[in-house]
Design brief:
23 strands, 6 domains, Helix Hairpins, alpha/beta, elongated
Amino acid sequence: MGCAENESGIPTQVWGDVHEDQVIEDLGWAPRLRKPLLALCGAGVVGLLLSMALAGGEGKGRGFESLDFWPIIGIALVSGCAGYLLGIPSKRSTLNLKISEENIRQANLALEEEISHREKVNEQLRHANQVLTSHVENSPLAVVHWDSDMRVKLWSSRAEKIFGLSAGKALGKTPEELGILDGRELEFFESRMNRLYRDTEPRGTFFSKHLTSEGTEVSCRWYNSALRDEEGKVYSILSLGLDETQRHQAQRRLLEYAQEIEETNTALDVALEEANCATQAKSEFLASMSHEIRTPMNGIIGMAGLLLETELTPEQRDFARTITSCGEGLLTIINDILDFSKIEAGRLDLEAIEFDLRETVEDTLDLLAKQSYENNIGLGCLIDPAIPGRLVGDFTRIRQILLNYLNNALKFTANGHVKVRVQLESETEDSVRIRTEVEDTGIGIPEDKIGLLFQSFSQVDASTTRKYGGTGLGLAICKDLAGLMDGAVGVESVEGEGSVFWFTMKLAKAQVEDSPESPTVDENRLLEGKRVLLGFADNLLSEVLGHQIQNANSDAREVSDLETVLSEISKSIEERAPYDAVVLDSRLDGLRPASILHALYDGLNSEVPPLIFVAPRGVEFEVGQKESSNGVRFLRKPIREKDFKETLGLLLNKQSETAPPREDPTEFSARASSLHPNHRILVAEDNPVNQKIASRILEKRGYLVELVSNGEEAVQALEAMRYDLVLMDCQMPIMDGYEATQTIRLKEMESGTGNHIPILA
């Protein structure tokens, strides 16, 4: 605060010093005079300066009327607030001294303030300098400060490291004197810097190559800024250098790698082309081998089958059966290898054919019925009734997966059963997802070996002394086939207890679901509400038949011996709720059907319900004429649901016709020679062995057979004579089966007769 003066010329700060900041204090309008003021001024007080005075100074002041102070100092009462009291000091020398001291003190205070301010500024400058120095020294960039003559004023530690040149050697030198630039690079560097000095560009960024003190090449990108004085003239340049040596080396390596990759890709393209050619050749070879290998194998198996139909000694029959078994095993292995090769080459395509899934599963079980019977293994299937009757897919591949699972299950099961379960997992408007399981009671799989399954050429026991054979391809092929059907495969197993192998698949729905080949609603309606007694020691067969009966909303009661059968029938008659039908094992309690019937008639006084006997394939029914015409029907295991419901329906409708048992596919009837005497079949086959087998089999069934060796001869034969069926080989010389079939169909269309001969490939 400055030393302002009042009207008397005396600095007011003096008064503040000698009379403790105030002459008069406003204490509730009661002024009080300070002693130091009286000592200084004596009685010569001449006036009172109020901080706020009212107009008309002679009026009365509020709160001061009762005081004697004002008349004593010889001034009129003044209205207003308390202020500073001014007067003439009685001791002027003392006052002058006080004024001088105050001036000196004020000057000292001002000087101290200036010094303090400068010290504070200097401290800030030191701090800023430290920060700047720290940034410069720790910056990943080289910091170089050039003066107006383009000489180095600052050379950071990073610059020392990049260029291998100490600050002591660099300071004061021009770019040329530094020795870190060769001729062309030096010329370029100086020209770019001169632009900055000439102020033709405010800042500049450029790239240059340098040489270190050791002769190593360094790539550096410079970021330059011109520094100007107050007049705007450039007096120095600050350069920041980024070492891009590693980046440029990496770019160079990347370019080299890119070139190598391009060369490699070119080589790969060539190799791929060669591989495609090799794959094409392989596919053609496999197709040819598929035909060439299967043809003689079919000949071996076919001839062995024909041999079994002749009169043979037991030893000869055993030899022929061994040939058939080995041939079928070898054909399975060959098919696995060929399928695996096709899948590996990506050349296995699935067909989209309308089919009945129930029929496909039951057909597959039929193929293994004899094997399961000979090994005393129960075999059956449970099919979800919610599955649509007609689906679209490749049923041959579905059967291939199922057959592989079933063969493995029978191979590794010594006793017990093998059960197929087909379930509807999910359904949309256009498709269904099906889960199929094959459960066995075999040896099971160790937990640590499960991961080996479904891998190519991999088996649980790969030792040379393994008990069970196989190529190790079957499950791998199943996995690939399921994948092609948008499905998956898996296994659950407990060692010593058995396994459950499963696969899923997605199939499209056929436009028409109902089919005459599938169990119809009418059949189920005929069985609705009926009571059926099942007598089987085989729990699986009871479960399968009980499942089929329950699907028709009928009631099934399961027993396991003949005594309980008799008891149940008698009880039902007594309760006036007799069974509508009885289904029995043809070997129940070790008895034959005739013995079982006699026991039933004797025990029930001829009140025997309609009866169905179930026997394995290949087992003859030994019943008399009386029994066969007295409400008794016969079925073969494994039982097809359609056959079972049709037979049960016939019994319940009291029809007398005896439904003939389904014939074993490996047995030929002696009556075959009298069938279809006028039907002609054309066989187009180039292999003489296959011609012989085909003609022999067909002739034994009573057909008239004509043989041709290629597709061209087949077309000519059809032009010359009418046939009821054509059996067409696909691969033949001159004209193959595909071209021959296409030619035949074109000729049928051109003729306009509407004839359409069936052709089986």
